[in-house]
Amino acid sequence: MRNGIEAAEYAAELQRLVRYLGVSNGNMQEGSLRCDVNISVRPLGQSQFGTKVEIKNLNSFSSVNRAIDYEISRQVLLLSQGQGDQIVQETRLWEEGSQKTVTMRKKEGLSDYRYFPEPDLPEVVLTEGYVNKIRGSLPELPEMKRRRYEGMGLSMQDVLFLANDVKVADFFDAAIAKGAEVKLAANWIMGDIAAHMKNEKLSIDEIKLTPHELAELIAAIKGGTISGKIGKEILFELMAKGGTVKKLIEEKDLVQITDPTEIEKIIDKVLLDNPKQLEQYRGGKTKLQGYFAGQVMKATKGKANPGLLNKILLEKLNAKSS
Q1: What is the rounded CA–CA span in Å between residue 92 and residue 112?
Q2: What are 91's strand-pairing partners?
Q3: How far apart are CA 139 and CA 130, in angstroms?
Q4: Less Cβ crowding at N or C end of the chain, within 10 Å?
């Protein structure tokens, strides 16, 4: 590998792997996953590797990235100043505060690195059949999942977010299996659901919303039963308290008003109650359309179908202006 970001991303992928496999929670700050790095540099055109330096005390991927890049520049500087002999085989520590590597201990010979056979450790021979059996039992791994999501037509931003956490990926897959539209499910998970999880410091399996209810919510908005605005309100209740979309819509009387006659009546009343604004609109202040739409939404508690509302409202506003 040639730089810090490459190594940090490789380590992050290993973390995803152990989490996908359920081997470990992979939390670096708890020591469930540790990372030491070895760095050596060599001038362009030189085939022989330079002296290797090990760095310890790296407890985050960003510190892996920064420590490597710092150490590369430290060694390059010494070589460029003709002080290559100052680069010795040693263990250094990464100091987060000063953003530098410092000497921890120098290692004199190969024996210090344990480069000799360990008599108490027997050889382990893994047969091809055994390896294949394990390979066949593996779940879908991060890279396979990313390729599958790409094949669904999701953007790389969506793919990386959804596949990063196996629990989020499972939730997404379950919502799709229940009939949710791929892009809409991704948008809800990456938007309002992710924001709620971040604010409440919860993981996706700790929220009360189920994948089935997310699919139901998407269907209710798409089918015109409720508006997107009401959908958001229901979503937050589902995440905090649980329950079903159907029951909440019934309990709170949230069904969208899609009857043109009913919407027309409400619009007529709003226009009648706001003669001054109506006159201003017809006098050229067309931005007031938003004001009237807001008043209708207020009167219907957000239940008027936005498309119908704007269509009828425009017809009414422009009807008598001639």
Answers
A1: 15
A2: 54, 105
A3: 17
A4: C
Order across the sheet with 35-39: list the strands: 35-39, 53-58, 90-95, 100-106
Can you read off the two tokens belonging to residue 93? 């520590």
Q: Which residues contact 132 (CB under 8 A, 6 or more apart)?
A: none
Rounded Cα–Cα distance for residues 144 and 3 (Å): 25
88 by DSSP, 3-state: which? coil
Band the pLDDT of 108: cuts 50, 70, 90. low
The CATH class, in words, for 260-318 is mainly alpha
| Residues in CB range of 174: below 8 A, 6 or more apart | 211, 212
Q: How far apart are CA 158 and CA 153, in angstroms?
A: 10
Handedness of CA 272, 276, 280, 286 (dihedral sign): negative
Ordered by start, the domain boundaries in the chain are: 4-106, 142-252, 260-318
Q: How far apart are CA 58 and CA 248, in angstroms?
A: 49
For residue 48, give the amino acid letter.
Answer: Q
> In a 3-state reduction of DSSP, which class is residue 155?
coil
Digit-coded pLDDT (tens) for 157-192 = 999 999 999 999 999 999 999 999 999 999 999 999
Q: Which two tokens stand for residue 187?
A: 């948008």
Of 217, 278, 265, 273, whose CA–CA distance to 245 is shortest? 217
* Residue owning tokens 């508006």: 227
Taking 3-state DSSP, the helix, strand and coil percentages for the chain, each rounded to the nearest 5, stand at: 60, 10, 35
Encode pLDDT of 52-96 as tens digits.
Answer: 999 987 989 999 999 999 999 999 999 999 999 999 999 999 999
Report d(CA 139, CA 18) in Å as an integer: 12
Span 240-249, pLDDT tens digits: 999 999 898 8
For residues 246 and 62, give the distance between their C-alpha atoms in angstroms, rounded to a whole number.
45
